[in-house]
Write a structure and sequence with these properties.
The complex is a heterodimer of chains A (about 325) and B (about 575). Chain A is built from 13 helices and no strands. Chain A has about 325 residues and is mostly helical. In chain B, the strands form seven sheets. Chain B has a six-stranded mixed β-sheet. In chain B, strands 1-10-9-8 form a four-stranded mixed β-sheet, with helices on one face. Chains A and B meet through helix 2, helix 3, helix 5, helix 7 and helix 12 of A and helix 2, strand 10, helix 8 and helix 14 of B.
Chain lengths: ~325, ~575
């Protein structure tokens, strides 16, 4: 087991390096220049000022050298300074992490908490209107763009009904520990973030439950005279959940990257919003820090998935 | 949509960097609704929550380059001199000044009451601290403003351990003089329309005999500890909001409001929604939201003219579009676009047609008498095109030597006003036989092409947010033509020795307002005739506020209307 983990971690290194090269290249080779962007319209700025700024940011070096410098610094834990904020990029990211985690965790809870029962109920009522509704939702929920449903929900719940706030972490002036107020704020973005996952889970669970219910051991369980509830929840569901764990793998990363759009729509001050702003502003160090962070999360989540997989299904050895 | 405002205000750095806070004398904008506040007694308390489409980046005026940060900074730092919100005329603020007869030496005295929020007096040393911080900072974009101050460049380069042109009165720490090497009219606002920074806080970061030391990494850049403006820094929740609280010791009298909060919102749609729900109580809005928000019971709208305009720039130095080098063609393009209709359809009437560079709100504006208004006249437009040697083909477009009269007009993506303007222009130009290929491009890629004079840009729709001083040097002087070797704001490549001379005249040595005004009137006359831009229109600024907020008196030279924020109060 330990060997397996070590091997997986070692595999992760070339993956992350590859990602860093690609993202570095894409961000630098894309047209646009942060220094010109930041100084655009400044009436008194001279070409020397711009050259000095570019030198200050290290942008006057050849690209390979810039990359190696970045890599060396990164290995020492220094992701460089954000061009926009003039503060360490990694620290900026970490400042935003709690907000993103709150959102991701609640979204995950909603996905599993709503998606799993929905799928099971649909399977048990196969062909009925509940099943049809869940299947319809399974397609639509997955297909709806997050920004669109987000804006729609803002109009409905915030503007028209005045039930929920539309933006931000908490009401201005409220204490940061005002939990009810925070819950009100997090509900809409978490729901939007969870939506696609809920749809996915309900579809997975429906298919799997139908599969499992048709198995011999389930028939045996029924034949033994077990209550339907026990048959479904003890015998069927446990086995139906295995593929769900597989799907969990991509979720951590999907939540972080999906949060990019949701955080933008709901002005949720998390990692996604910060990374989005970095891309908009061609803030290279911050882009790199944001992408490397998300990639690392992805690698870790795949590892966790594989470990969890072995745990849920003893037949699988790692 | 997120960029809509960001990008408009990015253009405003010219203004923001030069002078962030604004104005003095009470004034209402041209269409500012008058209130009944006169009978009401102001009460202290409450907070204003303003929407913004991007987060602030920094809270130090020396290194701020973005308009969002500068707006918040202006609530915390008062400037040495200010400009009248309505007229743009310089007025004494933290200090008052006299100038020597040769226009080279300015003598200043800082107001006796002026104190930092921590109780220490604001003194000449604090102004010097600003100058030194700019000289040594690697991040600032303000160094060039100081070029003409004697000794500034030597201090900047580490060749001197003091700035010889700035002398502090040994008897009175509130008095100082600044000596310039040459007379330069915009210097008054560039060099004195700025905020001193507390020397007892920032002084230690600049070391006279070590030019490598600077304020760039000072922790106070993100959390100021001593301020001179009506509000103090309280908290910055990054990505979400920045909270300022009342400066009880404000030298002009404590403001009524307890707090001023600036909150990040996703875009104009969301901002409009939040204004309606009351989550925001102040926000600059787009014309498209005007009717909707004006119906909202809890809101009040203010509208005033802006010191800026949106235009179509015709590239005069781009070999790909030789047709535009012919003045008759450019004039035809002015006659052929019904700007009154554009103002109606693009900004829904919240703006006015612009026929030359200087906006009507500026003291330098020469009015309309004697200028060609270019009222819509399709026949005249087509005649001018024919005069230039073009003939209409069977496809309805004019052509010469087998080449169709037409080009690409590009604008920045996400700015609805400009995108609509582009569509309308393309449609109307088609009617006079000019083939326009409309194109939108991301702002981040557009800017470098513009400022480097890339031939990829044939014509462009973009805007100017102008500085307080009317000096148009950076936009129209031939030395600022954008090339690959030298960035410039003269994107269109306009090169006219007469205009150069008039602009130089406006920069000195005679800085009398009438003298400058005459020079600028002549310059505008030439630009009006030459039509290097289709000067487009000036879009009004519209501010939506909670209707209980009292005391707002907008003016064109206070873009966010906060020049008198200490007098704002909330009716209970």
């Amino acid at each position: 087991m330990r060997k397996y983990i070590i091997r997986r971690v070692l595999y992760a290194i070339p993956t992350l390096l590859g990602i860093s090269v690609i993202v570095f290249a894409i961000s630098r080779l894309a047209p646009g220049d942060p220094v010109r962007l930041y100084t655009f319209g400044a009436t008194n700025i001279t070409e020397e000022d711009i050259a000095a700024l570019r030198h200050f940011y290290g942008l006057d070096q050849p690209l390979p050298i810039q990359y190696v410098t970045w890599l060396m610094n990164m290995l020492r834990g220094d992701f460089g300074k954000s061009l926009q904020y003039n503060q360490p990029a990694f620290a900026l990211l970490m400042e935003r992490l709690p907000a993103t985690l709150q959102l991701a965790v609640l979204a995950l809870v909603l996905q599993v908490g709503i998606g799993v029962p929905l799928g099971v109920i649909a399977a048990l009522n196969r062909g009925g209107w509940v099943d049809n509704a869940v299947r319809f939702f399974g397609v639509v929920g997955h297909a709806i763009p997050q920004f669109w449903i987000g804006l729609l929900l803002i109009v409905l719940f915030a503007v028209n009904l005045h039930w929920l706030p539309s933006q931000g972490l908490l009401t201005i002036g409220k204490d940061v520990w005002d939990i009810p107020d925070r819950l009100k704020h997090i509900l809409l973005p978490a729901f939007v973030l969870a939506l696609a996952g809920v749809a996915n889970y309900s579809r997975y669970l429906r298919t799997e439950t139908l599969d499992v219910i048709a198995q011999d051991y389930v028939r045996t369980a029924r034949a033994k005279g077990l209550r339907e509830r026990t048959v479904v929840y003890v015998h069927a569901l446990r086995n139906a959940l295995i593929p769900v764990v597989t799907a969990l793998g991509g979720i951590l990363a999907a939540l972080v990257s999906g949060a990019l759009i949701v955080e933008q729509v709901f002005t949720w001050p998390g990692v996604g919003q910060l990374t989005y702003a970095a891309v908009r502003g061609k803030d290279y160090p911050l882009i790199m820090a944001g992408v490397m962070f998300a990639s690392t999360m992805l690698v870790i989540s795949y590892l966790l998935r594989d470990l969890a997989y072995a745990r849920v299904d003893p037949r699988i050895k790692v | 949509m997120t960029q809509q405002r960001t990008h408009r205000t990015l253009l405003g750095i010219a203004a923001a960097a030069v002078l962030i806070a604004t104005a003095c004398a009470p004034s209402g904008g041209p269409s500012a609704s008058s209130t009944t506040t006169t009978q009401e007694t102001p009460v202290a308390g409450g907070r204003v929550i303003r929407g913004s489409f991007s987060d602030i980046r920094v809270l130090n005026p020396v290194i701020s380059t973005d308009a969002t940060s500068s707006q918040v900074i202006s609530l915390m730092y008062d400037t040495l001199l200010n400009v009248d919100a309505k007229t743009g005329n310089p007025v004494p603020w933290l200090g008052k000044w006299t100038v020597s007869s040769d226009n080279l030496t300015y003598s200043w005295e800082i107001d006796a009451k002026a104190n930092w929020s921590d109780g220490k007096p604001i003194i000449a040393e604090d102004y010097l601290a600003r100058a030194k911080a700019v000289a040594r900072s690697k991040l600032t974009t303000q160094k060039s403003s100081w070029n003409d101050v004697e000794g500034f460049n030597d201090y900047r380069d580490g060749k001197a351990t003091s700035i010889s042109g700035i002398t502090i009165d040994s008897a009175n720490p509130k008095k100082f003089t600044v000596k310039f090497g040459k007379s330069f009219c915009p210097a008054l606002i560039n060099v004195f329309g700025i905020a001193p920074i507390p020397a007892h806080v920032f002084g230690k970061y600049t070391v006279d005999n070590d030019p490598s030391k600077n304020i760039d990494t000072a922790p106070e850049n993100a959390a100021p500890t001593a301020v001179s403006g009506p509000f103090k820094f309280k908290e910055w929740r990054k990505g979400d909001q920045v909270i300022l609280s009342r400066n009880d010791g404000y030298w002009r009298g404590a403001p009524y409001l307890d707090e001023f909060v600036q909150k990040v919102v996703a875009d104009s749609t969301v901002q409009a929604a939040q204004l309606k729900t009351g989550e925001l109580t102040l926000g600059a809005i787009q014309p498209g939201d005007y009717d909707d928000l004006s119906k909202s019971d809890n809101l009040k709208l203010y509208e005033w003219k802006d010191n800026g305009y949106v235009y179509i720039g015709w590239r005069l130095n781009n070999p790909n579009v030789p047709a535009l080098q012919d003045k008759r063609v450019r004039q035809a393009l002015a006659y052929g676009l019904d700007m009154s209709q554009v103002v109606q359809s693009v900004v829904l009437g919240h703006g006015e047609k612009q026929i030359y560079h200087t906006p009507s709100v500026s003291w330098a504006s020469p009015g309309t008498a004697g200028f060609q208004a270019y009222n819509f006249d399709a026949t005249k437009a087509e005649q001018l095109i024919k005069d230039a040697g073009y003939t209409k083909g069977s496809d309805g477009f004019y052509a010469k030597d087998g080449k169709t009269l037409g080009w690409t007009i590009v604008t920045n993506q996400g700015n609805k006003t400009r995108e609509t303007f582009l569509q309308v222009a393309a449609e109307q130009y088609k009617k006079i036989g000019v083939k326009i290929n409309p194109k939108v491009e991301d702002f981040t890629t557009l800017v470098p092409k513009l400022t480097s004079g890339s031939n990829e840009i044939e014509t462009i729709i973009i805007g100017w947010q102008l500085g307080t001083d009317p000096d148009p040097f950076s936009i129209w002087h031939s030395s600022n033509i954008a090339t690959a070797a030298q960035a410039g704001n003269n994107f269109v490549g306009y090169n006219n020795p007469d205009v150069d001379k008039l602009i130089e005249q406006g920069r000195g040595p005679n800085c009398g307002q009438d003298v400058r005004k005459t020079a600028y009137a002549q310059m505008n006359k030439i630009l009006n005739e030459d039509q290097p831009y289709n000067f487009g229109f000036s879009q009004n600024r519209i501010l939506a506020t909670d209707k209980r907020i009292r005391g707002i008196e907008p003016g064109s030279f206070s873009p966010d209307a906060t020049w008198n924020v200490e007098k704002w109060w909330i009716k209970q």
